[in-house]
Structures are given as C-alpha cells and as structure tokens.
C-alpha cells in the first residue's frame, strides 16, 4: 500500500540565473520558490480559490523566513515541500522544506522556511480581513504538518 505524502511538492532545477558570483544560490530565490510553490498549489489543488484571487480575494504575505543549512548550486535538483502548519479564521501559516534530491534518490534538507498569510477582501484602499475560503481549507487538509498547532477554525 502506498501512502500519500503530507506535503505539496514543487520540483525545481536550479539555473545559473539563480546563483551569485561565487556560484551558490542567491538567498532571495528561496523566497521566490515559496511563492511559486504556493501558486502551483492553488492552480492544481484549489482552482476555485485562484478564481477568487483574480476577483477580490487577496492573500497578503505577512511574514516570511528561511533558515539555511547547506549550499546549493546550478543544476541541483530540488523538492520544495509545503505543509500547512497553522490555520486560524483569517490567517494561515505554511512551512517549506527545501530538499536536495540526488540521482541515486538520496535527499538532503538544505533549508527550511515559513510563511504567514492573511486573507483579505475589498478594494486596495479599504481591505478587511475575511474568513479563509472553505475550498482552501478543504484543499489544505491533506497537507497538515505532523506538529500542527491550531488546525481547527474557531467558530
């Protein structure tokens, strides 16, 4: 029996344009990959929420961080693994594991990140917090981290 992983995965091959003069990956790319992983999740797992984003739902990134454990360079193969760490009425938090995958199937954790998101609605001059869309809550259910803290939405 095969078990489904508890993370949403975005795979990426590092390109030269993502490295600095020394040849290792420039730190801002890790944050870019978090955003890309989140976007692909919406496209693949919650297209109705993506449609809401194109209407009036706004997903504001309130906080982002990343801890680095090892360097990577051009043509390294990465798996960026997103999990839901916290779910509140209007905010949620993701964790991201950056895993270097080798040709022989080996894996090395090279970085770990977090991202806190607030759901908002309204015109840009008057946005207000809004409940996390139910379709997003349902889409995230399989991706809860093992150490999740507040996954029950308060009534």
Give a description of the structure.
The chain is an alpha+beta fold. 22% of the residues lie in helices and 37% in strands. The protein has helices at residues 28-45, 47-55, 134-140, and strands at 8-13, 57-68, 77-87, 91-101, 107-121, 128-129. Strands 1, 2, 3, 4, 5 and 6 form a 6-stranded antiparallel beta sheet that branches. A hairpin with a 5-residue loop joins strand 4 and strand 5 (107-121). The longest helix is centred in the N-terminal third of the chain and has 18 residues, at 28-45. The N and C termini lie far apart (37 Å).
Task: Give short descriptive properties of this protein.
155 residues, 6-stranded antiparallel β-sheet, 3 helices
β-strand number? 6
**What's the story with the biggest beta sheet?**
6 strands, antiparallel
Tell me the series of helices and strands, N- to C-terminal. EHHEEEEEH
Poorly predicted regions are 147-155
Taking all residues together, what is the mean pLDDT?
90
Distance between the termini: 37 Å
Backbone structural class: alpha+beta
Strand content: 35-45%
Radius of gyration: 17 Å
Helix content: 10-25%
Note the overall shape: globular
How many helical stretches?
Answer: 3
Q: Outline of this structure?
A:
The chain is 22% helix and 37% strand.
List the helices and strands and how they pair.
Layout (H helix, E strand, L loop, with lengths): L7 E6 L14 H18 L1 H9 L1 E12 L8 E11 L3 E11 L5 E15 L6 E2 L4 H7 L15
Antiparallel strand pairs: 1-3, 2-5, 3-4, 4-5, 5-6
Helix pairs in contact: 1-2
